[in-house]
Amino acid sequence: MSAPKFIELSLVTDKSKVTATVSNVGAALKNLSVSGTEIITPTTGHDLNPYADGIVMAPWANRIDRGKWNLDGIALQLEITDAELDNAIHGLVSQVIFEIDEQSESHLKLDYRLAASAGYPFELTISISYQLTETGITVTQSAVNQSAARAPFVIGAHPLFQISGTPTQELEIKSAARSVNLVNERKIPIKKIATAGTQYDISEWRKLSTCDFDHGFGDLVFDDSGLAHHFLRSPDGSMLDIWQSAEFKYSFIFTPDNFYNNADPTLRKAIAIEPQTGPANAFNSKEDLIWLEPGQVFKASWGVVFTPAK
Asked: Contact 31/37 with Cβ under 8 angstroms?
């Protein structure tokens, strides 16, 4: 088995210099900069951050209610990894070591073979590809069901964004998400509502200091290229376009006021925009739950485009 390591990526063109650091632990994106502007909240070390910065979430994303779910009439129990709220959170690969399958100066592909377990009796190969672009990054997440039976599956990513030089609370957000899942006191979805005219409406530019989100957003609007977009903008006009392919039907948006990580213990505002193929607790609700047939390959992409101020 490989040891924990960081992989440095770089792409230099006549237009920009893009750099990124990826840990093979959890295939986590640790930092990303475009021509000196940090657009991922940077962190250090291989340990899981308190807010799960940069990890891959699979074979489920967000929470499973008390870690319990039912498969063909059989009750299964996942390990409780969110002790405070008594849930299983963010899947099974956030702290495992991925193997390097492909690597170049600006590209990295990591693989992990997930073994069957009591709470998730399926074997999958999960692959994560990072490709730097002139304006940011493209991330492709894929999985193959290596089991003899079809496997329930959700995948997602947990990036936290910033535009360095601007306090995060001063950024503005805009998204065409048309619904949001309301949650109970343990962060389990209980009801879906339309965002229009509510405190969750971000169809027009809105300052992050006014946002208090820890919710899954759905009914995304996809453009002619099959992509949905969420935007962050700084007062000087710098902008992030966080896009996701149609396989990612949800975005979990999280705006904590007390964020900190392994690189900086200072409490501060943060913004996570997390592409997910299904909502929280999908193993129980079955809402947009993917069932991978034996041998089936699944693939989805998300990425970031940074446009500097003019």
From this structure: no
